[in-house]
Amino acid sequence: MATNIFSIGQSALQAAMAAQATTSHNISNATTPGYNRQEVVQSSAGGINYGYGFVGQGAQVTQIKRIYNDFLTKQALASQSSASSLDSYYAQISQINNMVADTKAGLSPALQDFFAAIQNLASNPNTQASRQSVLSQASTLVARVSSINDQLQQSSAAVNSQITSTVTSINSYAQQIAKLNQAIVSAVGSGGGQQPNDLLDQRDQLVAELNKYVKITTVPQDSGAVSVFIGTGQSLVTGDQITQLTVTNSPTDVSRLQVGQVLPGGGTATIPDSFFYDGGSLGGLLKYRSETLDPTQNALGRIAIAMGTAFNQQQKLGLDQNGNPGTNMFNVSSPNLIGFPTNTGTTNLTTTISDPSALTTSDYTLSYDGTNYTFTRLSDNTKTVKVAGDFPVTLDGVTYSDGGTPAGAPTMASGNTYKIQPTANGATAFSLALNNTQLLATAAPISTSANATNNVNASTPATNTGNAIISNTSLDPATFKQGSSVSFTASLSGAQVQLTAAWTGAAPAPAVTFTNPDGTTGSVPAGTAFNYTPGMTISSGGVTYALTGTPSVGDQFNFAPVAANKGTATINAGSVTAPYLTTTTPLTKPTTLTYNTAAAPPAFTISPAVPAGGGTITHKDGTTTAIAGGATSLAYTAGDTYEISGVKFQISGQPSNGDQFTISANTNATSDNRNALALAGLQTANTINGTSFQGSYSQLVATIGNKTNEINVTNTAEKTRLTAIQTQQQTESGVNQDEELANMIRNQQQYQAAAKIIQAASDMINVLLTLGG
């Protein structure tokens, strides 16, 4: 029996030693990252039946248990992955937010200064100082756009660099996890199925560190190994084997790095960025690039393209200081076209920005299956399907065709796909095209006028052979009938020179009165010859003139009078629109509008007739009336706006019969500011998706600012959640020094008690030996 007691004491001593060693191990690893508290699991060693009952055999250590909560661990991994992604995203977007919203370094102050210079130019179109100011501020604006674009490109380069270092770290952790898998499998096999707790902790810690870079999913194996999957299910570690990740150039953009997978047989397969969006710093980087960086670059490019195009178009609608048509003010990019590496053959696909106001900040793809052309807007995956007969196709401000005349469908090989970036290069290519102040087109190419003075418009044909001269002309508007004309023809009656008046457009024809140099007067009916005396004064129908010299037979003296307008009607300064640049018959020949009350209803007679392209009358209530090509009469309602061959003008008020308005070419380009005012008006014009340049940039700033705040708030909440999970996890699995100290004292007491059992057994044996002796 004493021997049995000795064995019991020995088992108790061994259990106490194991417990003390485990407690000491816990204390020494209290600050070891990823360490989970361990505890000794004891059980009874059973008993021996001595007939009178079972006598216990002591204790045995069945397991060194790792205090591990798989549910909390998975929660912590998910929260940590999300927090790492948000940290990575926020670190990048906050830099862009600070840049675009900067009140000094952002685009807003440069835009304001540029348009202030344009306003000053409109006020002082003929001063070199105001012209130079516009070019200087335009240069500053271009530099500011370039500076912001450079910083965005630097951010893109930084993302590439971090992708490279992150992939290196992921591969390193994968190799370490694979080695630990191998060690754990070996330890479990050689340990009779017991778990190597410290190796498991090391592996879990590596998994947790890997999880900061990329969201992971672990699947335990019966052997003790774990398989690790990243992203949306890409295998990374299987047992002791790993899938090597690498960094590869994007197939559609060599400046853009993507994550790839090394294939077993060699080569690389590119993994879509979206596979990593669910978490980890890599996911945050890739989401930042696709959700914020790319749209920001495109938005800045869109502003540059829309502004450059709008100013170029308006410049061409004006006259520069030399009286020549305006030229481009800015250099503007065209859409970027990229063929996929799998494409075969070539294409004649051309892309042209036809409506900058309709541009989006998205990229597109165009694929062809042999019948259908499928356009995909990548920002929302919207698809638009067209067939060959639909071309040319205009989509979101970009026109697609084969570039021919007339334009048709592009030639593409079946299965080919092209990526189109309408605005990606907009900011990069944006530059100043003018460097000469005289080339700023401040004047409008047309001029309008109303008859404000009386003019007899006297003339003599080149066929006259006499030496008679017209002088002292005047016109009485009260007597003259607007639109009529008169011609006096010389003839001989014996030796006497006579004159005969012939009126056109006046019925009845007015009589002729005359005053001779000696003061005598006379009068004859229209069409009746009267004797001519050199120096006589002649009047008829409101036209008065003096004639000196001697006319020859057949000589004529013609008058096509125009009386000053009598009504209250006025014509505005007029402007031109884009069709003016392509018309072959502009209204600057000049063109005359004469009000005719005899028309039913009264209307303007236009001469020359309306060009073949016709035009439009826009009434004050917004309704329109078409003007046919070749029309010679224009209906009129006060306040009507006419647009013919790109010339736009408005007549207001009530004209009188015969009132005339003239449209002609502008010959005063130096001091005219109408096109400068139109340039200044671009500041508030809705030129980009229903908003102005400043409004579009403000939307960009607001979008980035809101996204930055959203990421920051979400990140703060996620970190709070992570801290709570980790605290709960540590409460259960972490080492509590006070608890371990108490365990150490208890183990020490157990050890001492076990020693007493052994001592008692030894004393009993000694007693038995003494009795036996």
Automatic annotation (TrEMBL):
Flagellar basal-body/hook protein C-terminal domain span: 732-770
Residues in Flagellar hook-associated protein 1 D2-like domain copies: 342-406
Highest taxon above the source species: Bacteria
Domain Flagellar hook-associated protein FlgK helical, first and last residues per copy: 93-330
Keyword presence, Zinc: no
Protein keywords: Bacterial flagellum, Cell projection, Cilium, Flagellum, Secreted
Flagellar basal body rod protein N-terminal domain ranges (all copies): 8-35
Pfam family, one: Flg_bb_rod
GO cellular component assignments: bacterial-type flagellum hook; extracellular region
Main subcellular location of this protein, as a coarse class: other
Keyword Electron transport on entry: no
GO molecular function, one term: structural molecule activity
Cited SUPFAM superfamilies: Phase 1 flagellin (SSF64518)
One of the protein's GO biological processes: bacterial-type flagellum assembly
Protein location: Bacterial flagellum; Secreted
NCBIfam families: flgK_ends
Family in the record: Belongs to the flagella basal body rod proteins family.
UniProt name for this protein: Flagellar hook-associated protein 1
Organism: Herbaspirillum aquaticum
Classification lineage: Bacteria, Pseudomonadati, Pseudomonadota, Betaproteobacteria, Burkholderiales
